[in-house]
Specification:
Blueprint lengths: L9 E6 L14 E2 L2 E2 H11 L5 E6 L2 H9 L3 E4 L11 H15 L5 E5 L8 H12 L5 E7 L8 E3 L5 E3 L17 E11 H7 L7 E5 L11 H13 L6
Parallel strand pairs: 1-4, 1-6, 4-5, 7-11
Antiparallel strand pairs: 2-3, 6-10, 7-10, 8-9
Length: 239
């Protein structure tokens, strides 16, 4: 602990492409009276640890809105914004764009606009947790109530077998390790490692555990309604 000698530079990148099959124009859809994107922009702008912000989008509307909010916006190439495009190449594009035009940064942070309940408080907590260790990455997660290690899968013959082995499904849950899944809210990785690997995970990746209710990843209209309900119902959400 206590490895930090100076405040590191952190670039927050928000990937907000135009296309969405389930919710057309999802990132600009109004939620509690504001565009979905606005919640992530506000969280990043108010986070103490964030040095600068870039929004990468193939949507002129998204880029214009971002610039109106005082945030840098870049045109995301169409090959990095189609339905099968992964986040990592688009993040690499945004990071190299920023480093070339401004300056290299110590860390790059991916913030997905589909996580409107992730706040500046969560970002700062995650950064504080990460920067006081020798870890090289952090991913926000939620713990699973039931261990997937107890699962079965179908084999080629149509019979079930253990996901890991045939003994684990019969072990007591308390004897199995705690399992977590990413909730999509926060990814942070050392920029030099990401530039070399284009991976958000490193062998020294910490979990930042969030409550499942705050880790909503808006993918459907039901998710959108649930997030809006929580925003309207709770005065504790810090934007």
């Amino acid at each position: 602990m206590g490895l930090m000698t100076k405040q590191p530079s952190v670039l927050a990148v928000i990937l907000a492409r135009a296309g969405s099959k389930r919710i057309p124009g999802k990132n600009m859809v109004k939620i509690a009276g504001r565009p979905l994107l606005a919640y992530t922009l506000d969280a990043a702008k108010k986070a103490t640890w964030v040095s600068d912000i870039v929004v990468s989008s193939d949507s002129p509307e998204v880029r214009a809105f971002s610039e109106e909010q005082g945030v840098k916006a870049i045109d995301r190439p169409s090959k990095l914004a189609n339905d099968v495009a992964r986040s990592e190449p688009a993040l690499y594009h945004a990071l190299t764009w920023y480093a070339t035009r401004y300056k290299p940064v110590d860390w790059v942070m991916l913030l997905q606009p589909t996580s409107p309940l992730r706040t500046s408080l969560h970002i700062d907590e995650a950064c504080t947790q990460l920067f006081n260790t020798d870890a090289t990455a952090l991913i926000s997660v939620q713990t699973l109530p039931h261990s997937p290690l107890k699962s079965f899968k179908l084999n080629a013959d149509g019979y079930i077998e253990g996901l890991i082995n045939n003994e684990t499904p019969f072990q007591r849950s308390q004897d199995l390790p705690v399992c977590m899944i990413p909730n999509g809210a926060i990814y942070i990785v050392k920029s030099d490692l990401f530039l070399a690997s284009q991976k958000l995970w490193t062998p020294k990746t910490l979990p930042y555990v969030m409550d499942a209710s705050l880790g909503i990843d808006v993918d459907t209209t039901e998710d959108l309604a649930q997030a809006e309900q929580q925003i309207l119902a709770s005065k504790e959400v810090i934007l």
